[in-house]
# Entry
Amino acid sequence: MSRPARVVIDRAAAKHNLSVARSLSPNSKILAIVKADAYGHGLVEMARSLQESDAFGVVSTEEAIVLRESGVTHPIVLLEGFFEKSEIAVLGEYTLESVIHNHEQIEMLRNAKVRSLSVWLKFNTGMNRLGFDIRELENVYTVMKPISNRLVIMSHLANANIPDDPSVESQIRLFQKATLAYGEDKTLANSGGVLGWPDSHFEWVRPGLMLYGVSPFSGITGQKLGIKPVMQVLSKLINVRFVKAGESVGYGSEFICPENMMIGVAAYGYADGYPRNLKAGPPVLVNGEKAKIISSSMDMIMVDLRGVNNPSVGDDVIFWGDQLPVELVSASLSTIPYELLCGVRRRSRHKELVI
# Structure
């Protein structure tokens, strides 16, 4: 029997989430974000599940090549663009589209004498991360238009995950005003924009997190938004023991038993991607009953079983999934769902797929 730690991916849930994104932005094309191994869900598997998308977004030529060589024919956009001149030839070889966000990239294109490239021009409207200053739009557009066979104008919302944040409306208005005179396709909305800011939808939307059934809004789970979690992280108890009051559990005696209690050991650990910050006692389900994690190591997690009836070796453990939203788990760990989802890539061989 193999080690019971595993990640189960529900492809049907991913398709449902895509349909929700489509219904919320019916007049927009969808650039499905599958970077970072599709947020830990499996790059190729998710691309196949999300094949009703209009294009895919990745961050490197390596990711794009994996998709192309797996048979994906959709447009593929490099969200950070190319990083060095040698990659420009790869864009042509694999028919890739590139975000252009700085003058150095433009200079590389000029030196390479590129004459036909699908380009997504990125401008900064408040995120202050990537993108030309929005005041440069006319000059950058004028330079790029002759060497592009298609242009999309884009920006990125900084706080779309915060309902009613006034900066989002400011970014939308700035983007609308700056791009009004241009007939090119435009894109601004990420998952938060798709779900909460209809004015940001334009010709393209760029859902990421919501496609995996996870809410971008603090305090709101994906289920409440009508989307379904795609990932479940599961294991089993591999040991159950009685520990007396005052005795310790785990390395460094990091948990002291306040009373006589049962402790369970699950086959999962930080090498599988579960964070070690356990001060708040993050929740876990053992045979569907609520319990708390109290200690961890590379391959094992120790669980307080005081709320579980008759625990035994072999009991099912759910770290997150449809019964225990990852949003709740990440909040208890003082992190964000993205970090937990991407963390499971460390042992992706444990992945199982539900067709």
